[in-house]
Amino acid sequence: MSVRTLPLLFLNLGGEMLYILDQRLRAQNVPTDKARKDEWTEVDRKRVMNDLISTMFNKKFLEELFKPQELYSKKALRTVYDRLAHASIMRLNPASMDKLFDLMTMAFKYQVLLCPRPKDILLITFNHLDAIKNFVRDSPDIMNQVDETFRHIIEVYGCLPAGEFQLIRQTLLLFFQDMHIRVSIFLKDKVQNSNGRFVLPISGPVPWGTKVPGLIRMFNNKGEEVKRMEFKHGGQYVRAESEGSFELSGDRVLTLGTNMYSASRPVETRVSGALKNSSLNTKDNIAARTLAKEELNFLARLMGGMEIKKTSGPEPGFRLNLFTTDEEEEHAALTRPEELSYQVINIQAAQDQQRNEELTRIMGEFEIHDQPQQSTSKGDDLLAMMDEL
Amino acid sequence: MTFLLSTESSLGSHFGTSRTSAPDRSMYRRERPVPMRSCPAALYNNLSVLPLPAPGLTQFALVHGPTAQLLSAAPDGLPVSQRQLHTKDGAGPGFPLITQAYWCVLPFRVLLVLTSQRGIQIYESDGSVMVYWHALDSTDASPVQALFARGIAASGHYICVGTWSGRVLVFDVPAKGPNIVLSEELDVHQAPITDIAAEPAQGQDCVADVVTADDSGLLCVWKSGPEFKLLTRISGFGTPCPSVQLWQGSVAAGYGDGQIRIYEASSGALHVQINAHARGICALDLAPEAGKLLSGAEDSFVHIWKLSRNPHSGCIEVEHCHAECVTDTQVCGARFCDLRGSSFAVTGYDLAEILRYSCV
């Protein structure tokens, strides 16, 4: 609903993606002098992180992102991250990409749900941005890109009223609706139940600006307090000690959005069983097909702005596995339930400038002939073309 | 139906020393929930309840996103019938989302109103036939504004619906048939409307009978009629007011910071301030025959309060009756299922069932 949601969704999910990839790269790390040609080293890891972050914070790309627009489907967004993940020497098999996307989305869903005040979504975003800046602290150019974006966010969101933040939060929760994938790191830490729902604590500090529940004050017509009563609220809340900083740097106070993965904690997801009544009715299917055309517009615009560096010469892509073994990855690909398949539009990872231009040209053509009858067939052609890529 | 009022609060219980996480005396017990196909959207006031003539049968309406679901259930929780309603297709990209579903009880008929990102759809109470459609006017919108209708109430033969701009549309509804007419547009609010409440006008004096609330927390109190008259404005100082109720000339408002405040409608004087919840309130409901107020919030709690008017001062007073923790659930809708408040229903984000409670 809120047309200002996409940048926050993208940057926070992107932040989670970087945390996970960083952890997996470190886990698969091999000392440089001992590394074989196809093994990861510290240098490779830094290079991957730099490439990813510099692509994410590309000026043209962000310009498209920040345009006021409705949120697109998980499928469309997943395609963007798929492309982004391949903006480096790293290669991910579909099963690993699925797992990555599951983890990213469940982590951010958790953060949005537990966010104390709607405005604190900004603090969560800042936590992610602070960490991203730390990843590229040795590369001043990329740091600059991130800082620019940081300033832009403060400019765009800093003065929004509470009601607008609540609308953004509601829009995000709509995006995450019906997602109950179980993540073992969450299950172990007891922040998620075995049915996939998150644990909502009823103790701890109240949000900044909220009073601890339990007091009733009654006044007369002159405004004088005449009676005061306490009631047993049921929770065990305490006062909030301080408000997090909304400046370019500062103590955010809130820990949501900071890196919860450490080198020794493997990231596993168990995919929830099929929902009992998950069959899509016909109307949803038709709507989903119509939606795809708008999403293609969105994808073309967004990825047109994504400058992917070409890999030079015969350098091979380094494969990253999000599972512990290759066999596990294969097994995950085969056993993923149908309704959780993202059915990604497979846009070729090998960046092709010429193809991008053609895509944009076709999009331009498509926009001119904007009549229902014609656009149906043109849209279908385009969908077919995407599948062939 | 008689029941014992819990008077823990008037004993001045030692707040903070008790370590129990739930109150000792439970007046309501949990009944069989009503299962649903999918989970409700995390929107304000996301539940409407209509008791049906058939004994024990209750009808529920709630919003999932692009669809709204109507379910009728028997006391044993088994759904008797179900119906899904969709947004009327309009121009523009993306799924149009429904923001609210609400039954309007008018003098001669009951109508179901759905508000969405496109406009307002009015149906016969069982959702079988759409009687009227009103498209939202987007001419004054800037590209950064989200367009939607939200906030629904019935006052006499008028249906009031709020919009994203703060404008409130007043529709005049005939005793039967589809000739619903847009009678007036109220342009006082400057922020998106969140909720509207109404109650039957008391007596012949000019008494307030409609209150509108918005995202900035502003409350406007009106006298309904062929021309609505603005009586009072009550500022919220920037904190959104997602839910509002009207009872015997008092406005009960739930705010995004977890507070409930009760004002005298005609003067705007603050009578009660309750630090009720630890997160934003998403739903308020009233059982008018008993003066009971129900509040549900994102902190996973539902509270019931007893309102009464002090015979000496004439001011409204409040007592806490009951606290219910809906474990690990952000409540998004809460309604009494009868006029005396002997039973209530709750919906929550990520919860695929409607929870029901009734007095023991």
UniProtKB/TrEMBL annotation, chain A:
One Pfam family, short name please? Oscp1
Q: Which InterPro entries match?
A: OSCP1
Q: Which cellular component appears as one GO term in the record?
A: plasma membrane
Designated name of the protein: Organic solute carrier partner 1
Q: Which organism is it from?
A: Sarcophilus harrisii (Tasmanian devil)
From TrEMBL, chain B:
Q: Which residue intervals are annotated with compositional bias (Polar residues) in the record?
A: 1-23
The main location is membrane
Q: Where is the WD repeat-containing protein 54 beta-propeller domain?
A: 27-360
Q: Could you name the domain of life of the organism this protein comes from?
A: Eukaryota
Record-linked SUPFAM superfamilies: WD40 repeat-like
Concerning InterPro entries, the annotation shows: WD40/YVTN_repeat-like_dom_sf, WD40_repeat_dom_sf, WD40_rpt, WD_repeat_EMAP, WDR54_beta_prop
Cell membrane among the record's keywords?
Answer: yes
Question: Where is it found, in Gene Ontology cellular component terms?
Answer: cytoplasm; motile cilium; plasma membrane; vesicle
Cited SMART domains: WD40
Has UniProt tagged this entry with the keyword Nucleus?
no
Q: Which regions are annotated as WD repeats? A: 274-308
Q: Name one GO biological process term.
A: single fertilization
Q: Subcellular localization, per the record?
A: Cell membrane; Cytoplasm; Vesicle
Instruction: Sum up the protein's function in the record's words.
Output: Plays a role in the adhesion and fusion of the sperm-oocyte membrane through its interactions with IZUMO1 and IZUMO1R/JUNO. When cross-linked to form dimers and trimers, it has a regulatory effect on ERK signaling pathway activity in response to EGF stimulation. Colocalizes with the EGF receptor in WDR54-specific vesicle where it sustains the internalization and controls the degradation of the EGF receptor after EGF stimulation.
Summarize subunit and interaction data from the UniProt record for this chain: Homodimer and homotrimer; forms tight forms of dimers and trimers. Interacts with IZUMO1 and IZUMO1R/JUNO.
**Know the name of this protein?**
WD repeat domain 54
